[in-house]
Design a protein that fits this description.
The protein is mostly helical. The chain has one helix at residues 2-34. Helix content is 52%, strand content 0%.
Length: 64
Amino acid sequence: MNNQIMFGIGLVIFVIYLYFLLSIIRKQNKNKGNRPFHAVDSNDFDGMGNQGRIPNKKPKNRAV
């Protein structure tokens, strides 16, 4: 009897977990379709963000 109660509680927790997991996945898929294509940075070829870019201007007042 005790094993059946623990199995039932575990099953309820697992079903609740799966429900929220699938609802989050569904919401993310809906939001992905609404994002415009040009929102992605087209200059970020290496995927590292801005840290790999070389600035266009030379810094002012640098000691030589």
